[in-house]
Amino acid sequence: MLNSTTPSIAERETAATLGVVSGEAIIGAHIFRDIFAGITNIIGGRAGGYEKALREARDIALQEMNDEARRLGADAVVGVDLDYESLGPDGGMLMVTAAGTAVKLR
């Protein structure tokens, strides 16, 4: 499945617009990752645990979006937008949403 943040796929004509598709992933922030991220924030550097968790959540959200597009018979999803949020009373959950327009290409 082709994904693009642009409104079309270069050098491919859109034959049909099939509709909006989306995928979501919500993951819990593990307590040890929180502790190590806190240490990293104090001494500087990157919070690798959070980066890995966000990558995993992004991949899940994109896969769910692509699965929905496939069910519609799409060849691609254009105008893809990724949104990242923290949820819960203490921000202990991470949510990634992927959304775009499923299209059939010529």
TrEMBL record:
Database matches in InterPro entries: UPF0145_dom_sf, UPF0145_YbjQ-like
SUPFAM superfamilies the record matches: YbjQ-like
Pfam families the record matches: YbjQ_1
Superkingdom of the source species: Bacteria
PANTHER family: UPF0145 PROTEIN YBJQ
Sequence similarity: Belongs to the UPF0145 family.
Protein name as catalogued: UPF0145 protein AQ619_10585
